[in-house]
Write a structure and sequence with these properties.
The structure holds two protein chains of two kinds. Chain A is built from five helices and eleven strands. Chain A is α+β, with helices and mostly antiparallel strands. Chain A has a single domain, classed as Beta Barrel (OB fold (Dihydrolipoamide Acetyltransferase, E2P)). Chain A has a six-stranded antiparallel sheet. A three-stranded antiparallel sheet of chain A has the order 6-8-9. The radius of gyration of chain A is 14 Å and the shape is globular. The model of chain A has no long low-confidence stretch (mean pLDDT 93). By secondary structure, chain B is α/β, with parallel strands linked by helices. Chain B folds into two domains: 255 residues, Type I PLP-dependent aspartate aminotransferase-like (Major domain) (Aspartate Aminotransferase, domain 2); 113 residues, Aspartate Aminotransferase, domain 1. Chain B contains 17 helices and twelve strands. In chain B, the strands form three sheets. In chain B, strands 1-7-6-5-4-2-3 form a seven-stranded mixed sheet, with helices on both faces. In chain B, strands 10-12-11 form a three-stranded antiparallel sheet, with helices on one face. Chain B has a two-stranded antiparallel ribbon with strand order 8-9. In chain B, α11 crosses α14. The longest helix of chain B is centred in the last third of the chain and has 38 residues. The two termini of chain B are 45 Å apart. The chains are: A alpha+beta, B alpha/beta. Chains A and B meet through loops of A and β3, α7 and α16 of B.
């Protein structure tokens, strides 16, 4: 576990600069938002999940709709969740519909958003950073 | 300094109801029988039953527990909560304005048509556009219709590749929503370190797929987009249109015009810029203006003047129009208030409105820059326009108390909170817009309150965190309200049973 200020960033995960995490599970990738992201959002009241089967693209600086994995709504704001990898949505976390607060209480476990069947895993992983680099990145924000 | 809002233990009007109690007696038998189909008839209406004084007292008490621009300072950034002169209300309530019917023959409402005609002329002059439709009934409605006009324009050029609308990352949420409603994909363009649209990023974003760029100027940070001429050129060279969101028109009114900056479509919030009341869901008006080339797409009808006959009329004969977008001709009462305001101020007066609004915002900016706990994220040496976005991040770092708590504590000082946590590109944002209506003493009181709160956050954090305590209602459970909203009597009863 890496600490960046008050925020957790577990080792072994990959991170995007848009504050999503990726956990590799064989050929699949589990995705959620980071502790930093949930903290900045505040209490989450609604999560818009992507449709299973939807094709998404890895997020770049020029963000488009094809990179969105849905949205997280808190009492502060509605934020799009961007896909850290390209691929097809395999599964979504239905528990979030009843209990959106799982994103706040357990961002890295129970608060996962979806599982992706990644289509270009090897090349795209290079765009993501590890826990240590993510903690460094947070310090500069 | 002490403030205490009225605090009544007031039940809901449904809870005050007693069967059979009335404030009005209806004739026992209707004068005329109307044949209502049986399946539409109801036996019971389930309306509350009360006497007239009970109803009056109930709503008087509720109004005493309310807060508005008539009760105090209301620096809600981006909303321009300026004072609404009472004479505008008085004139809009006159029989000639209030008792006319949209089905009346045109020759009997010539005055009303003339007013709409003249208001349109005023707005075209203010914005630097060719024509204006007064029908659109709110700001977001104006944005949406602007996107429909954009679509009609590209379609008329048989250009069907354009499916993207660009919005800056500081834009109001209604911009991407309006674009999406009109069927466009939304592309976000980032702000640069100066808090303006990043011109290079914009250049990289525009393409043959760009339908329009939606922009406010001054932007949502209260800063003037000083590269607007270059921005307009980039968008126009790519074949897109430039839409002006009128949210911040109070920052340039009478000093410069969106049309002169290169905007093709402009919308106005009469309730922000021209002192009509904010609707709170009631009737509103968000007129929309366009340049010559787009005129033919405006909604029907437009008010025209027949010089030969010396009379005003509605022109429906506009074959390229996007059609009707609102019942009848918009919310006429709101238009009356805006027109009265325009006549009250006159051209010079409107320029002075902007001067005072900008001066007030800069006064607050300069004074608040010296207060520990608040900072500006973009060029503090730049003057702001009519609003300024501070960050309470230093205070949060020092004390753990952020913008949300500061805003709640301000209510105890008898002031409305600024907009907070918006725009999202500023952490712990406090978006302050004093408007031209306020005195120096009021502005001083506001800055003093923010200074006091910053000190309290260090010395007595519990006081700040438990605020507000001087208001009719204390801290609301916003999370519960969002997760389990109960918005009607029926839903309330259901939840109480459940």
């Amino acid at each position: 576990m890496v600490k960046a200020g008050n925020y957790d960033a577990p080792d072994g995960l990959y991170y995007s600069r848009e504050h999503e995490w990726v956990k590799l599970e064989g050929k699949l990738a589990r995705v959620g938002i980071t502790d930093y992201a949930q903290n900045k959002l505040g209490d989450v009241v609604y999560v818009e999940l992507p449709e299973v089967g939807k094709q998404v693209k890895q997020v770049t600086e020029q963000k488009t709709k094809e990179m969105e994995l849905g949205a997280v709504e808190s009492i502060k704001a509605v934020s799009a969740v961007y896909s850290p990898l390209s691929g097809a949505i395999k599964e979504t976390n239905a528990a979030l519909q009843e209990r959106p607060e799982l994103i706040n209480t357990s961002p890295y476990n129970e608060g996962w958003i979806c599982v992706l069947d990644a289509s270009a895993l090897e090349t795209e992983l290079k765009q993501l950073i590890d826990a240590k680099a993510y903690a460094e990145y947070l310090k500069k924000l | 300094m002490s403030y205490q809002q009225a605090r009544w233990v007031e039940p809901l009007i449904f809870e005050l109801s007693k069967p059979g109690r009335v404030g009005w007696t209806l004739p026992e038998k209707p004068r005329e029988r109307i044949n209502v189909p049986k399946e539409l008839l109801r036996e019971k209406l389930e309306l509350p039953e009360l006497s007239e004084p009970e109803v009056v007292r109930h709503y008087t008490r509720l109004s005493q527990m309310n807060y508005g621009v008539d009760s105090g300072f209301y620096p809600l950034g981006s909303c321009t909560m300026k004072y609404n002169p009472k004479v505008c209300e008085e004139l809009a309530a006159l029989e000639a304005a209030n008792y006319i019917h949209p089905h009346q023959a045109e020759e009997t409402v010539q005055g009303a048509l003339e007013l709409m005609y003249m208001l349109e002329r005023c707005l075209t002059e203010i914005a630097g556009v060719a024509r204006v439709s007064l029908q659109t009934s709110a700001g977001a409605h104006g944005e949406f219709v602007a996107m429909l006009i954009t679509r009609a324009y590209h379609k008329s050029k048989r250009d069907d590749k354009r499916n993207q609308v660009i919005v800056p990352d500081s834009a109001h949420g209604t911009n991407p929503a309006s674009a999406a409603m009109a069927g466009y994909d939304v592309v976000t363009v980032p702000s640069n370190a100066r808090g303006r649209v990043d011109l290079d990023a914009l250049k990289a974003t525009v393409s043959e797929r760009t339908a329009a760029l939606m922009l406010t100027n001054p932007n949502t940070l209260g800063l003037f987009e000083d590269q607007i001429i270059e921005i307009a050129k980039v968008v126009h060279d790519a074949g897109g249109l430039l839409f002006y969101d009128g949210a911040n028109l109070n920052g340039i009114l009478g000093r410069t015009r969106p049309g002169d900056m290169g905007f093709d479509i402009v919308h106005f919030n009469l309730h922000k810029t021209f002192a009509t009341p904010h609707g709170g869901g009631g009737p509103g008006a968000g007129p929309i203006g366009v340049q010559k080339e787009l005129e033919k797409f405006l909604p029907v009808p437009l008010v025209e003047y027949d010089k030969k006959k010396g009379r005003y009329y509605f022109d429906y004969d506009r074959p390229h129009s996007i059609g009707k977008i609102k019942g009848f001709y918009g919310n006429f009462g709101v238009l009356v208030k805006a027109y009265v305001y325009l006549l009250l101020m006159g051209g010079e007066g409107l320029s002075e409105v902007t001067e005072a609004a900008v001066l007030n915002a800069n006064y607050i900016m300069r004074k608040l820059l010296g207060v520990d706990g608040y900072e500006l994220k973009f060029n503090p040496s730049d003057p702001c326009k009519h609003e300024v976005v501070f960050s309470a991040e230093p205070l949060k770092r020092m004390t753990g108390i952020g913008a949300h708590f500061v805003a709640k504590r301000l209510l105890d000082f008898g002031m409305h909170a600024p907009t907070y946590y918006f725009p999202p590109i500023v952490p712990e944002a406090l978006m302050i817009e004093p408007t031209e209506s306020e005195s120096k003493e009021e502005l001083d009181r506001f800055v003093e309150a923010l200074r006091t709160i910053a000190e309290e956050a260090k010395s007595d954090p519990d006081k700040v965190c438990s605020a507000p305590t001087a208001t009719a209602i204390g801290r609301l459970d916003e999370v519960k309200a969002s997760r389990q909203p109960i918005l009607s009597w029926r839903a309330y009863r259901k939840s109480a049973k459940g």
